[in-house]
Amino acid sequence: MSKILYIEDELTKNIATIKKFFLPILQSSKIIKQINDLENGSPIYAEDIISICNKASELDICYEFPVALDKVV
User: Fold this and answer.
1) pLDDT one-digit tens code per residue, 9-62
2) What value does the CA radius of gyration of the chain take, rounded to a whole number of Å?
3) Model-level pTM?
């Protein structure tokens, strides 16, 4: 299966965008609940978003270009 690489340098401000674009990929209700809980809590860390979303094997999320480049290469 193909993978999607989403790169966003302001990841903590764009949880709604992640949900909008990738909700069909994040089909597990557990993952969606964790994202909603994270969005409603504070503070939000990029590493938390990445660890939750990477549970969906089709999606890789990065917030630093060098990490994204490593995933591509």
Assistant:
1) 999 888 999 989 988 888 788 888 999 998 888 788 999 999 998 888 888 999
2) 12
3) 0.80
C-alpha 3/C-alpha 25 separation (Å) is 10
37: its two tokens: 């809980």
Q: Which residues contact 24 (CB under 8 A, 6 or more apart)?
A: none
CA neighbours within 13 Å on the CB side: how many for 24? 2
Which pair of tokens denotes residue 13?
Answer: 């401000």
Reference 4, options 70, 52, 59; nearest CA is 59
Stretch (H or E) spanning 18: helix 15-22
Angstrom distances, CA of residue 3 to CA of 6, 13, 58: 10, 23, 5
Spacing of C-alpha 56 from chain mean position? 9
5: β partners: 60
